[in-house]
Amino acid sequence: MLLEAVYHRPKLNWCYAYDGRTIHLRIRTKRNDVTAVSALAGDKYIWDQSKAYVPMTIMVSDELFDYWECEIVPEYRRLKYGFLLESGKEKYWMTEYDFLKQPPENPDRLFEYPFINPTDVFKTPAWVKDAVFYQIFPERFANGDPENDPKGTQPWGGAPERDNFFGGDLQGVIDHIDHLTNLGVNAIYFTPIFTATTNHKYDTEDYMHIDPQFGDIDTLKKLVKICHDRGIRVLLDAVFNHSGRTFAPFVDLQKNGENSRYKDWFYIREYPIAVKDGIPTYDTFAFEPLMPKLNTDNPEVKEYLLKAAAYWIEEADIDGWRLDVANEVDHEFWREFRRVVKKAKPDAYILGEIWHESSPWLMGDQFDAVMNYPFTNAVLDFFVDGTRDARSFANALSKQLANYPRQVNEVAFNLLDSHDTARLLTKCEGNKDKMKLAAQFQFTYSGTPCIYYGDEIGMTGGHDPDCRKCMEWDTSKQDLELFSFYQELIALRLKYSALRTGKITFLSAEAGSGSLVYTREDEENLFIILMNNSETPAEISASVQVNRLENVQTEETVNLKDGKLAAKLPAYGCVMYRAIQ
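The chain above was modelled as a monomer; its predicted structure follows.
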């Protein structure tokens, strides 16, 4: 037994309260090294009467490790615990201090979860578990009110450029809300809608006003009300890392320099502020002079931004915030942000834009979730670029699942493209079957999926600005078959809770192969999903614990012999089965 590979700590994703009564324990061992793990657990004040061994099961495995998990509901909301590791006849008891060859005589040196204090339990919004998001770039979705078009607005459908305008607005979204309802989505994420100079609005001029080219607060209220009436939640984009160059405090700073009362709202390295050899003398987003970085440690800055965060929830009834460049803002600001937002709306969704492992922000005191780019990268590597095989893909996602508590994984924001990337169909080089296979995995995986506007009708586009084309509203130019595919996929996910919050298990993911078999399971249903991520047909098989299945797509019943499941799949084919009695 390789004890050097064994890891646990009594916090974070390794030991946490899933709800007000339940504690999840996890421990890591070398892959295929340990044959059984049990948690030795009980109440420290009545240890001898309460101690018991709780079997643990392998939650997931990656290329190096097995991650074991168990669920315990302690009678008195506190837990003292250690682990028993077994490999054949070899046994070790793991305490907080040592590995022992005999059971610990008393609990003093075991691990401890002191008490499940309700205020410490990381609660994520329940509705997000059932959400299917649709991302809208407002300037390019639909022009519903030509009266508010900015000067120089171009005819709808022209070539997108970094600085041109087509007149998209909030009224356009209202006018086309039936499209979203018919598609079946129940949440919208809008990129920024507040006053700014650019078409993308990430250079905020005024956090308290809707950009006039999009409408006004009454338009937003009307849109949110219409969405809520149809069961659609609304998420807005908050750009709190930086402002725009036309933000009034920065205008004052440009005018008055060191004498500006707003000089401490920003990070100035040198006066007068200028751009030297392409590098501003003040901190910015990247090196973009139009986007000066805000000093969120400044009390006035903090007060202004937190006021905006609460205002749009209280005034327009929005359902949460997506936070731009979230990892470059200080943690204490986000802690205060969470308190303000959750006070205004307890089930508001707080979503951070972070492209990497994000545990420091996902401890229950800051964000509910992050944009799940590790998921995005793994899916694109496997299904689109072919740089991962099935084994590597399953390992990457398993590692990702093990990184976070279950409640975080349940509300992770799973996207395959966005305004920041090339479109999915373009990444697939126009191969619609490949695109569909990636989407089928996205919609049958843990977390909330998001569709980038227009993907559902076959829109294409390379990197910015090409990915920000005008939405195609001419039905003769829409891929209606693809639209129906997304409709069915969304309906299937919303129908079965197992596809949203059920346990995921990779049954078969072989090295050097594109064949993937995995399950989603909860108390109500078990789904077995087979995928052929290959340009040639393949027969895929797996051993399962059931003998009767229903093909979800065809409703055909399949009877198995000795739990042996096999299916012949076309190139980039997928079949989903549901176990039946």
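The longest helix spans residues 299-316.
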